[in-house]
Amino acid sequence: MRTRPVALASCAALLALAPAPHPASAPDARPRRIDIRHLALDLRLNWAQSRVEGTATLTFTPLRPTRVITLDAAFLAIARVTLGRGTSLEFTNGGTADDDALRITLDRTYAPGESIDVQIAYHSTWVNHADPNALGGSNGKGVRFFQPTTTE
Questions:
Q1: Cα–Cα nearest to 92, from 103, 105, 79, 78
Q2: Once rounded to an integer, what is the mean pLDDT over residues 13-37?
Q3: Closest by CA position to 80, among listed 97, 93, 67
């Protein structure tokens, strides 16, 4: 019998590129400035490096005049951000638990209700080691990669 590698993912990890959903009562709460209408993920599993690589395409509308948007992107390395038509956008990304903000500067100020498509190319940086005491792995973040062993 031949065994194959398996990857398990938590939905939260694959949807990491989402508006910062901090509760309004949190001291570091970010104001909600956009309404995401659609999120398309094109993901590839890099078995050699135990990481997820991909592109997220977000279709959203601003809730108020908006030039800069902020998304959660902890443990993600961002390669590039473009508008749907291919225009490169400036961005900053902390990529860590302490600074999980991906700040994207749009090409202009958009009015409420305008539809915007942004593509974000990224790869994961969290290494989620197997933990026999926790089904979610180390801290339950991201994707866990399981390789066949000599006893399986």
A1: 103
A2: 60
A3: 93
